[in-house]
Amino acid sequence: MSAVADHVHGHGHAHDHHGGYRGVMRWITTTNHKDIGTLYLWFSFVMFMVGGVMALVIRAELFSPGLQVVDPDFFNQMTTMHGLIMVFGAIMPAFVGFANWQIPMMIGAPDMAFARLNNWSFWLLPFAALLLILSFFVPGGAPGVGWTLYAPLTVQMGIGMDLTIFAIHILGMSSILGSINIITTILNMRAPGMTLMKMPLFCWTWLITAYLLVAAMPVLAGAVTMTLTDRHFGTTFFNAAGGGDPVLYQHIFWFFGHPEVYIIALPAFGVISQVIPAFSRKPLFGYASMVYATAAIAILSFIVWAHHMYTVGMPVTGQLFFMYATTLIAVPTGVKVFNWVATMWRGSLTFETPMLFAIGFLFLFTMGGFTGLVLSLVPIDIQLHDTYYVVAHFHYVMVAGALFAAFAGVYFWLPKWTGRMYDETLGKWHFWLSMIFFNITFFVQHFLGLAGMPRRIPDYPLMFETWNKISSIGAFGFGLSQLLFLYIVLKAIRSGEKAPEKPWEGADSLEWTHLPTPAPYHSFETAPVLK
Amino acid sequence: MAQGATTPHERQAHYWVPAPMPWPIMGSIALFLMALGAVFVFNSLRAGWVSLAAGSMLLLYMMFRWFGDVIRESEGGRYGRWEDVSFRWGMSWFIFSEVMFFAAFFGALFYVRVLSVPDLASITHREMLWPGFEGHWPSAGPAFEEKFTPMAAWGIPAINTLLLLSSGVTVTIAHWALKENRRGMLNLFLLLTILLGVVFLGLQVYEYGHAYAELNLKLSTGAYGSTFFMLTGFHGFHVTVGVIMLTVILLRCLAGHFRPDHHFAFEGVAWYWHFVDVVWLGLFVFVYWL
User: Fold this and answer.
1) Dist CA B31 CA A124 (whole Å)
2) Tens digits of residue pLDDT in A402-440
3) Interface A-B: count of C-beta contacts within 8 A
4) B139 CB near a chain A CB, below 8 Å?
5) Which residue among A37, A140, B159, B223 has its CA within the 20 to 30 Å range from the CA of A502?
6) CB atoms near residue A60 (< 10 Å)
7) What is the DSSP letter of A137?
8) Cα–Cα distance for residue pair A57/B29, rounded to 1 Å
9) Are A30 and B218 an interchain contact pair (Cβ–Cβ within 8 Å)?
10) How many CB atoms within 10 Å of residue A495?
11) Distance CA A516, CA A417 (A)
12) Residues A44, A122: contact at Cβ < 8 Å?
């Protein structure tokens, strides 16, 4: 063992699984990609619960017109923090957790390329989350500006805004360091014979996602840094009186924000591209085209940002450019959807829980894509901008897209991770409850948006009451269904049936074909022999 | 010695997976304390300085120990060709992320110069809001009353350009000397690089003083002051970091570290230095000159 381990602990020797650290210190100091993946996944679940409770506060307030549960200021804090926590605390770390667990096993690597940096990437997150949560307890409370943190509201907010800005900086650091690690691992740690075009598609989607993160997260850091100096040091980046422009903030933010959408979506595509072939017992249809489509989406994502800003007073030429560029994204995304469907075509299908979630994803994500196309059209978007139609659209992509894919991934790989099977009946219950309540919550929000209900308001006219009531009932149902998910996972870990070596007949990536179940603490210390 | 295979594609049997260590969590706690302290200080709560200072010291200690471990491992022969390639990818992508960080501020500069300032001087705004605003760059915006003088390009900034470009040459000579195993020359040219960097920083500090005292050019001088100080300040911070890294490398050279065929720490810092250099050229052209 290294000189490092020797001086911190006398028993730190190579045969020791955890390098000499025990108990909670094992998790704090670990350099093992599986430990770190587990940390990411549990952290993300905790944040999912925190952000979920905030969503339920929002839905409770919107159950009836008028103000019943919270005051408008706190309502704004809830919508802001719900968005920030779900995006940066729940969905992104969940997929980094998958990346940590799966990428080294899928490419035949002994671990991530930078194992200690990997530890830091994770352990930055809880402290950033702490800063975010702390903002509720300072004078003025958490920022109530929306997760997009638009100037000039952000310039006027209280201390909570500063805490949020630094939280974003630290979250960004975590993402950038984690992404550099993932890129390096994929480019440099593949087993001999594992060429790029033989990698499981999950690795490809993460390679491209990590590139997007390295390119986009620093831009967000720049945007919030300018907000910080506008707040405290007299700069006027976002103040027209000094020659700046609040719209400048929106441009910079969405230059980050649109790639961010794909940062969330691409790893989900990756998981789905592993699950659907496994339960169709067929190789992924059009593998190469999937890779190219992923790359095309990534490139296009950097030239469509202003479709979030059609109503700010852009020249028509600008609107047209961003509209055409945006509709172009439907092409590679369509390639993916058709490939998934073609993979299932004449496959020998079975419908275990991972496959159910994958098909649910396919169906609902495609709907979210269609509403995205609707919103990409300038004349329609001017009507629908900042209405519940937009809320419905991005929840179809984020929840039914990213979250359902994450569920599919957990059910799919849980046997490999823990060596135990989940309860199939309960898993199916979880799927159907999630599927039904999700649609009760969000499908009706399309109607609300089309009827003109704006987002981010705590009160509304009577005419919107029926659909809001239904949506709130659905939201509480969806939230409670996720407790079932927690129960299923805990039950599998504690008392699940022992998983067979290869529980999924059609799964063919290295973690299934070359490693025992459960995967050993250290895998592929020497490279596997590949044909 | 775990020296690796002779070609990058020929694999070593084992990749170096390091043991658990407490430094990452210490870094997180340090950043947390620093963030908390900075928030308090920005909002006029003096207690923040304590947290800020404690966090900064903890961060320095953490870096000292973490880098110390890595240096010991490197000199102990833990890193072969395979690990070396990882370091190269890692540093390249890190520099790319820094490029994107600067891109945000350059984007802001181009936006105010090309779009927002001319737009504020357009006929609608001039009639309705700010009569008489001309919108010529350099501008501090329509509501800025005081007079200020923009920073001229061909004085100190031009000298600074020469200094940084020369330092790019000296660091390259030092690298060449390292590869030829001419240690005296290596140390000399590394020292020269550091001195050029330090003189650059000194002139930059002088320029800021000059701007505040004589040109009435401040961070709060509208769009021009904001972009000028944000871009040059952020760059100056990077030069400072670069100088510190070069100094560490010099101390390591004096301690006899690095071999002609094994010195990625040197190269990584040299890459970083060239990156800082290139960003400066962008600054010189778009902030000072045009």
Assistant:
1) 8
2) 999 999 999 999 999 999 999 999 999 999 999 999 999
3) 245
4) yes
5) A37
6) 16
7) G
8) 31
9) no
10) 9
11) 10
12) no
Q: Which of B144, B124, B143, B142 has its CA nearest to residue B134?
A: B142
Contacts of B208 in chain A (CB under 8 A): none
Name chain B contacts of A104, Cβ cutoff 8 Å: none
The rounded distance, in Å, linking the Cα atoms of A509 and A375 is 38
Classified by CATH at the fold level, domain B20-78 comes out as: Helix Hairpins (1.10.287)
Q: Exposure of A54 by Cβ count < 10 A (0-12 exposed, 13-18 middle, 19+ buried)?
A: buried
Interchain CB contact of B18 with A (< 8 Å): yes
Within 13 Å of residue A125, how many CA atoms lie on the same side as its CB?
30
Under a CB-based contact definition with an 8 Å cutoff, are residues A180 and B101 in contact? no
How many Å apart are CA B196 and CA A278, to the nearest integer? 60
Neighbours of A255 (CB within 10 A): 25
Contact with chain A for residue B114, Cβ under 8 A: no
Which single residue is written with the structure tokens 């381990």?
A5
Quick check: A347 and A283 in contact, CB under 8 A? no
The whole-angstrom separation of Cα A129 and Cα A44 is 11
Q: pLDDT-derived band of residue A19, with 50, 70 and 90 as boundaries?
A: low
CA geometry: angle at A47 spanning A227 and A109, to 5°?
95
Contact A3 B38 (CB under 8 A): no
DSSP states of chain B: -----SSTTSPPS----PPP-SHHHHHHHHHHHHHHHHHHHHTT-TTHHHHHHHHHHHHHHHHHHHHHHHHHHHHTT---HHHHHHHHHHHHHHHHHHHHHHHHHHHHHHHIIIIIHHHHTSHHHHHHT-TT---PSS---TT--S---PPPSTTHHHHHHHHHHHHHHHHHHHHHHHHTT-HHHHHHHHHHHHHHHHHHHHHHHHHHHHHHHTS---TTSHHHHHHHHHHHHHHHHHHHHHHHHHHHHHHHHHTT--BTTB-HHHHHHHHHHHHHHHHHHHHIIIIII-
Q: Do A240 and B104 touch (CB under 8 A)?
A: no
Is there a contact between B38 and B52 (Cβ–Cβ < 8 Å)?
Answer: yes
Can you give the pLDDT at residue A309?
A: 96
Q: Which amino acid is at A33?
A: H
Task: Specify the DSSP element, H or E, that contains A174.
Answer: helix A159-188
b/e sequence A127-143, b meaning 16+ C-beta within 10 Å: bbbbbbbbbeebeebbb
CA A502 vs CA A517, B3, B89, B148: distances in Å: 7, 38, 35, 73
Q: Which two tokens stand for residue B262?
A: 């094994």
Give residue-wise pLDDT tens across range B85-106.
999 999 999 999 999 999 999 9
> Residue A324: CB partners within 8 Å, gap ≥ 6?
none
CATH 1.10.287.70 boundaries in chain B:
20-78
Residues 6+ apart with CB under 8 A from B44: none
Task: List every span in chain B annotated with CATH 1.20.120.80.
Answer: 79-289
Round to whole Å and give the CA distance between B76 and B54: 32
Q: Does B20 touch chain A (CB under 8 A)?
A: yes
Q: Does domain B79-289 have CATH number 3.20.20.70?
A: no
Q: What is the DSSP string of A222-283?
A: HHHHHHHHHHHS---TT-GGGT--HHHHHHHHHHHHHHHHHHHHHHHHHHHHHHHHHHHTSP
- CA-CA distance, A163 to A155, in Å (whole number)? 13
Average pLDDT over residues A311-319: 94
CA–CA separation, A455 and A478 (whole Å): 20
CB A134 within 8 A of CB B40: no
Rounded distance between C-alpha atoms, residue B28 and residue B44, angstroms: 24
The two structure tokens encoding residue B191: 């020292």
Q: pTM for the whole thing? A: 0.95
> Active site residue: A307, A416, A430, A456, which one?
A307
Report the sign of the C-alpha dihedral through residues B40, B43, B45, B46, in that order: positive
ipTM surpassing 0.90? yes
